[in-house]
Amino acid sequence: MERITYPLAHPIEIEIHDGATAKTVTIAELHLAPRVKGRHMRAADHAEGPVEAKLLMISSLAGISRAEADELDEVDILGLDSAYGSERSDLQRIAVALGLVPNAPVDAMLAAIAAARPAAAAPVEGGAVTGMTPVPLPDGAGSPADGPATPVTSPPA
Fold this sequence. Notes:
The chain is 33% helix and 21% strand. The chain has 157 residues and is α+β, with helices and mostly antiparallel strands. A hairpin with a 2-residue loop joins strand 1 (4-18) and strand 2.
């Protein structure tokens, strides 16, 4: 079967050591297994959480190391999740919840998620604390996970 080629929105750089010399190589695309099989799913068995499980599965599907998977950008991780187009795709479930049509283009899904983030009662990054909401940050100031959380007295409408 032919592999799926996924061009990375944010290429990653890795360092390859050959004895005393080292060189930097840029990975601009991943070549993924055409279908998720048991061996790929089993790669996530030793994960200590859902993010690690996702990265272990991506590394297995793409034939890259766990360290290389750690360097992937969030946009690419979400895109890789949707590349298989299954109903179980996290990105597809979020898109449908935001009112987009199933199998909407990845760019449309990411734009809808970004637009919905300020209205979210909890940071999208996870680790939400009941009664807390992320503090809005100016453009370019990082993500809500980088800033302090502010207590709220009532849930947002």
